[in-house]
Design a protein that fits this description.
Shape: globular
Order of helices and strands: EEHHHEEEHEHEE
Number of domains: 1
CATH class: Alpha Beta
Distance between the termini: 28 Å
Helix content: 25-40%
Structural class: alpha+beta
Number of helices: 5
Number of strands: 8
CATH topology: Aminopeptidase
Strand content: 35-45%
Radius of gyration: 15 Å
């Protein structure tokens, strides 16, 4: 395992091909379908194909740079945290924790640890958080991690125009 960083309860590590089943199963919950439908992997083969691409991105600063969240106590893959380029040298944070593990602070813990390491790794002093406005849980994570909202209203999000919120975290 090529570990990026650790927290009290999590190991944040590079993805490996043997994680495909967990990635597939973690992506199938209703929150993923509602908030990030392009990150749903309907089949194990879809997850394997995506993992192959994501793994190929390690060592570059082009991204996306996606890392698995593994619990220390049970060694369970519960989701991911990522930095994704959004153009003009800007990066966006992304994260997902499987439904069975939500409301336990894992996303906040992961994002806080990940930001400081990855901002240095890709050489940026700010990271953006863009979410559907109705994804209030994501909004709470961003707020707890020090992101400041600078836009709320209609905007582009994945496949259309929706009510969104944009925020920024700065070193």
């Amino acid at each position: 395992m090529n570990i990026l960083t650790e927290t009290e309860r999590l190991i944040i590590t590079e993805m490996t091909p043997d994680m495909a089943e967990d990635v597939h199963l973690n992506s199938l919950d209703e929150d993923t379908r509602r908030f990030v439908p392009d990150e749903v992997f309907e089949t194990l083969e879809d997850a394997e194909e995506t993992l192959e691409f994501l793994i190929s991105q390690y060592g570059s600063t082009e991204g996306p740079l996606v890392y698995a969240l593994i619990t220390k106590d049970t060694d369970k893959n519960i989701g991911y945290v990522q930095l994704v380029p959004i153009g003009e040298g800007k990066w966006e944070i992304g994260y997902h924790v499987a439904k069975a593990f939500t409301n336990k602070g894992y996303a906040t813990e992961a994002v806080k640890a990940f930001l400081s390491v990855m901002a240095k790794k890709v050489g940026v002093k700010e990271v953006y958080g863009i979410r559907l406005l109705k994804n209030t849980a994501s909004g709470r994570v961003l707020e707890k991690c020090g992101f400041e909202t600078f836009f709320t209203g209609e905007g582009d999000y994945h496949d259309g125009v929706y009510e969104i919120s944009k925020s920024v975290w700065k070193i």
